[in-house]
Amino acid sequence: MTSRAALQARLEQGIAALGLVLPADAVERLLEYQALLGRWNAAYNLTAVRDPAEMVTRHLLDSLAILPHVQGESLADLGTGPGLPGIVLAIAAPARQILLVDSNGKKVRFLREAIRALQLGGVRAVQSRVEEVEGTFDCITARAFASLADMLGWGGHLLAPGGTWLAMKGKAPDEELPGVPPGFAVRAIHPLAVPGLDAERSLVVLGHARH
């Protein structure tokens, strides 16, 4: 087992490498979340990543890498799985109203327990297909959830006017760009350097097309 001190060091070094300044209790709470996920994962198979140190890199730091691009007062995380990036973002920037959406009952049960255990005010989890979710949100996140065409086709109605859609991808999804539906436009594609991760990561920033 990797010791908690080693996990904390890996997380703190990664946060520093990303140039982020987080609330005073954020590291402690992120490690609590990772430990809770590890415990539930043994029984419910919520993520393929089993090693705690890998969880810090592939889940916590990978989610934190998009924090500088998150904006607005409300956020919906679509296909959140066990809360990635939604719960990580809720801990790192706690003032925002966040809706976590997943169709998998086991994952939503875990999310509700994590929200309760971590006392995440302003965070809700719903078990739903994305196309059936109601409301609008200033920011929408989706991590390895679907193609850009499908994401926006199912969830585009949730993006508030002037809102920002953050699609987390592996390599830059050039072949998906022609499929972006009418009414939406790609604003930027940012390569992300996740500390400790060799794999390519990119963030596609989309919004409503400006007329």
At CATH's second level, what is the architecture? Answer: 3-Layer(aba) Sandwich
Low-confidence blocks of residues? none
Helical segment tally?
Answer: 6
Largest sheet: 7 strands, mixed
Task: Give the end-to-end Cα distance, rounded to a whole number of Å.
Answer: 55 Å
Describe the 3D structure.
- This protein is α/β, with parallel strands linked by helices.
- The longest helix is centred in the N-terminal third of the chain and has 19 residues, at 26-44.
- Helix content is 36%, strand content 24%.
- A 7-stranded mixed β-sheet has the order 3-2-1-4-5-7-6, with helices on both faces.
- The protein has helices spanning 4-18, 26-44, 52-64, 86-92, 105-117, 148-155, and strands at residues 74-78, 97-102, 123-127, 137-143, 159-169, 184-192, 201-208.
- It is globular and about 55 Å long.
- α2 (26-44) packs antiparallel against α5 and α3 (52-64) packs across α4.
- It is built from 6 helices and 7 strands.
- It has a single domain, classed as Rossmann fold.
- α6 (148-155) links the parallel β4 (137-143) and β5.
